[in-house]
Amino acid sequence: MLGAMINSRCGRFAATISQRERVSRALSIIGVFATLAPLPAHAQDSVAAFYAGKNLRLIVGYPSGTVYDTYSRMTLRHMVKHIPGNPTGIVQNMPGAGGLNAIVNVAQVAPPDGLAMGIASPGFTVDLLLDPGNAKIDPRRVKWIGSVSGETGACVFWHGKAKTLDDLRAKELVLGGTGPTSSTYFEPRVLETLFGLRFKYVHGYQSTVDIRFAADKGEVDGLCGLAASTVARDMADQLKSGAVAVPLQAGLAANPDLAAPNAMDLAKSEEERQIMTLVFGPAAFFRPIMTAEAVPAERFAALQRAFDATMKDPEFLADMAKARLDVRPMTGAEMTSTIARIYATPPDVVARIMAPKLSAILGRQVVVENRAGASGNIAMEIAARAEPDGHSVFLGNIGAIAINPAIFHHLAVD
After folding, report:
1. N or C: which end of the chain has fewer CB within 10 A?
2. CA–CA separation, 146 and 159 (whole Å)
3. What are phi and psi for residue 88, nearest 5 degrees?
4. Which of residues 5 and 39 earns the better pLDDT score?
5. Rounded distance, CA 272 to CA 269, Å?
6. Pick from 139, 118, 114, 120: nearest CA to 128
7. In b/e form, how buried is each residue of 144-172, taking b as 16+ CB within 10 angstroms?
8. DSSP symbol at 87
């Protein structure tokens, strides 16, 4: 068992993951792969009969005209051709809560009959780990159909300020950011910690587009967290001329259109790989499509197969290329496996990832301490007996902590 503590002066933070939970996660992954087995003829007939003459909705978490909306309309138009019964595809925009309104509607409101799918930015998939108080969805309790495109972050610098990883390590650089809790701050802070980099931050920009303009004028040196596909597609002339440079990428896989090294490939330990999987992993399924957990298995399998066929459809690929939209698909099974890897992150590693965010929010340094043992009870006791001044925080596995009073007769802390 693992225990971890976060410390804003002398604070503590502990957590545990049980073997039973690991087995449960493994069985859920096996179940997902099992749904991909060929459907019997009678099941295919049943699916076709169900979808014939019906409307299949893809609910988008953003307004009409946004990039997610465009991806959704292009994908659904081709996807319905590959679904038995050939339903009519309808895109419905449901903006709000950072895209989560659409996901919550599909997962918890719409009938789980296979006629509703949702798409939104994948940041919510790690909320249970990094922002549990605001989490609305457990990504392990929905069914993943697939992701149209993955993404890799890029550190981009203007006017020759940094061209290589050695340049990043040799000098302090000024990065533009949209806010202290955004990816333009959080992701480079992780890179600083892992690779010994030194950044200063100028916050308050409304978007990465504004940061790019600011860097071009010399207000800041650059930014980290810009989509690599955007750099490769929209900044190709600047890259070729040397006006901008990309010394580092950060993602589960490198974008092949950029020559910069990928942070994941530079990891020197399993802990560093775990940290980057949690921080950068969701971007690997950047355009994720889901449906409700209770959708019947044969309809879910039909939706997954239709998605996979669409990603190889020459007409779809030609339309996407014409629209200059990136296609780097991930299957639903691969998404489920990646999310399982993210949620297998040891609690002390989660605590270390949370520390920079908490430091920015609290305005003081947050330090993580490990106090393992007794299913997390040692760390919990230390935090509970610390001064009641708000500086001690405990991270624990609620299952183990909640059941302990029924197992142990003498607990230092209830």
Report:
1. C
2. 39
3. -90, 130
4. 39
5. 5
6. 139
7. bbbbbbbbbbbbbbbeebbeebebbeeee
8. P
Query: How confident is the model over 247-263, as pLDDT tens digits?
Result: 999 999 999 999 999 99
For residue 295, is pLDDT > 90? yes
Q: State which amino acid sits at residue 174.
A: V
Instruction: Provide the terminal-to-terminal Cα distance of the chain, rounded to the nearest Å.
Output: 19
**Count helices and strands in the chain by DSSP H and E runs:** 17, 14
Q: 36 or 248, which is more confident?
A: 248
**How far is residue 94 CA from its own chain's centroid?**
20
Report yes or no: 310 and 384 within 8 Å, Cβ to Cβ.
no
pLDDT digits (tens, 9 = 90+) for 66-125: 999 999 999 999 999 999 999 999 999 999 988 999 999 999 999 999 999 999 999 899
Going through 220-287 in order, the beta strands assigned E by DSSP cover 222-227, 244-250
Give whole-number Cα distances, 145 to 37, 299, 378, 399, 408, in Å: 15, 11, 42, 30, 43
Q: Which one, of 236, 225, 238, lies nearest residue 324 by Cα?
A: 236
Q: Looking up tokens 């290329």, which residue turns up? A: 321
Tell me whether strands 244-250 and 153-158 are parallel, antiparallel or unpaired.
antiparallel
Structure tokens at 222: 């650059």
Where do we find the tokens 């392990």? Answer: 140
The pLDDT of residue 169 is: 94
Say how far apart CA 183 and CA 141 lie, in whole Å: 25
Sheet holding 153-158, edge to edge: 198-202, 172-176, 222-227, 153-158, 244-250
What does the chain come to in residues? Answer: 414
Q: 3-class SS at 88?
A: strand
Torsional sign, CA 54, 60, 64, 65: negative
Residues 374 and 393: their CA atoms lie apart, in Å, by: 18
Cβ atoms 157, 185 nearer than 8 A:
no
3-state secondary structure 297-329: HHHHHHHHHHHHHHCCCHHHHHHHHHCCCCCCC
Write the DSSP assignment of 351-365 as a string of letters: HHHHHHHHHHHHTS-
